[in-house]
Amino acid sequence: MTNEANPSAPAPRSVLVTGGNRGIGLAIAKAFLANGDKVAVTYRSGELPEGILGVKADVTDMASVDAAFTEVEAAHGPVEVLVANAGITRDTLLLRMSEQDFTDVVDTNLTGAFRVIKRASKGMIRLRKGRVVLISSVSGLYGAPGQINYSASKAGLVGIARSLTRELGSRGITANVVAPGFINTDMTAELPEETQKSYLASVPAGRFAEPEEVANVVRWLASDEAAYISGAVIPVDGGLGMGH
After folding, report:
1. Which residue among 43, 142, 150, 199 is the active-site one?
2. Residue 204: exposed, middle, or buried by beta-carbon count in 10 A (0-12, 13-18, 19+)?
3. Is 150 a catalytic residue?
4. What confidence category does residue 1 fall into, taking pLDDT thresholds of 50, 70 and 90?
C-alpha cells in the first residue's frame, strides 16, 4: 500500500506522541506530519497546530490512556508508531527531595511509558509491526545533581526498550531510546543566564540543540531505514554524554 499523492512513498502510518503539545514532543509530531503520517498527540492543555489530532490524556491513569488510544484508533487506525515523550521534573537535592517528589516523577515518566507501551503493543502484535521510541535524557545515564528522581525515571526507559526488544523483536516491533541533551525550549530559556552559560561550556558542540534535531532522529528511528536497530540508545546531546 502506498501514498496516493506520491505512489512511491510509503502509506501514512498512525503515529501517537505522548506529551506532544509543546517543545520536543510538538517538534516530533510536526516531523511525522511532514512525513505524510497521520499524527495524534496526547496532551493536558494548550493549542495544537492544524492537522494534528489532540486527545486529552493523563499517562498516570490507565483508564485515561485506554480512552485516548480508542479515540486515536477510531480516527487513524491502530497505532503503528508510538513516541513516549510525556514527562515532568521535580528537581531538588536528595536530602530535600520528598518521597512524593520521587514517586510522582517516576509514575509519569517511567510507569507512564509502561502504560502507553502496554496499550499500543496489542495493536502492534496483531499488525506484526511497530516502532516504539522512548524519549530519555542525557541525565538518565550521565546523572545530574538535583535530578535523582528524573535520572532514575529516564534510565529506566532503557531497561524497558531492551526488554521489549527481547519480548517483541520477532514480531517486527522495534524499541529504541533517544537521549537528548540541552535543547532550546521554553524550559531551557527560563534558566538563569549564568546556569545556561555553565551548561553551554560543558557541551563540546558549543550550542544547545533545536527541538527539530531531536525530532529528525526520532522520525528516522521509526523509518524502514532503521528496521534492524532495536534496544539502542541514541544520544542527541552535542557530545555532552559521549553515549553514556
Report:
1. 150
2. exposed
3. yes
4. very low
Report d(CA 175, CA 160) in Å as an integer. Answer: 8
CA distances from 212 to 18, 24, 56, 66, 241 (A): 16, 7, 24, 29, 19
Domain locations in the chain as residue ranges: 2-233
* pLDDT tens-digit map of 104-160: 999 999 999 999 999 999 999 999 999 999 999 999 999 999 999 999 999 999 999
- How far does Cα 97 stand from its chain's mean position? 25
Q: Write out pLDDT tens, residues 35-87.
A: 999 999 999 888 898 999 999 999 999 999 999 999 999 999 999 999 999 99
How many residues are present in the chain? 244
**Check: CATH 3.40.50.720 for 2-233?**
yes
Q: List all residues 6 or more positions away from 172 whose beta carbon is below 8 Å from its beta carbon.
A: 127, 128, 129, 130
Interatomic CA distance for residues 38 and 52, integer angstroms:
8
**Sheet holding 173-180: strands in order across?**
53-56, 38-43, 14-18, 81-84, 130-135, 173-180, 233-236
